[in-house]
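Predicting holo structure, zinc ion bound.
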Amino acid sequence: MPDTPAEVPDFTQWPSFPFEGDIRVKPLDEPVDAEPPRKGEGHRECTACNAPDEAYIWVGERWRVRAMDRPTGLPMVLILESRSHLDLGDLPNLLAAELGVMTVRLERAIRSLDGVARVHVNRWGDGSAHLHMWFLARPYGQLQLRGTFLPLWDSILPAIPESRWRENLAMVAAWLAEFGGRPLAEPPRIQWQAPSSFSGSGTAPVDVADGEPTSVIEAAEEAGPDPVEENPSAEEPTREARGPASADPEAAN
Ligand SMILES: [Zn+2]
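Done. Tokens:
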């Protein structure tokens, strides 16, 4: 028997909580004395700095926007990155001000897509030291997806059709390009016959470097140590995507 099992919090009863059945709270590991370096810290390579512009759907002088490498459950999941290797608190005033402008612009672009009710903006940063902001679109009408469990639902829901995903990427890229920069995502070519895959549909604007996460939750897994590193004590990687799960989605809206 575990000693004093932690009580399961109220949010497990919320309609937005994705799981049912018997839920138990995991025991917490002992805190480490020194945290391991994130990507782009210490001796670890920075994925963002190494990624070519072609891995993004839109690039500007100081900002880039990328997608996952395949469709996921939500209508749109995008990441805004600074070109410079800086974390949020290190941004100089120019970039800090532009982050606000870019955040508003990207939120509006994603919210303009068909079937999108809301866009949630998140910054975790446990996995990579290079600033990256998550933009997660909630499908319209799906009230159960409201609030802080949306990143979990992204991995639970069936992936949206690839053609729709590519159209959405192209629309966001074109929207951003209205203000400058270069759109790299293009709409899919017209498919005269039902394709078995879209691998041949023109450019592949959203391919990202090997090992890049394909969903918010996979990104959380990425926060763990390099697989090649010896770290026998790390059975579970850091959970980057846990978010402020105690926030009440009703109150947050
Ligand atoms: Zn970097």
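The mean pLDDT is 83.
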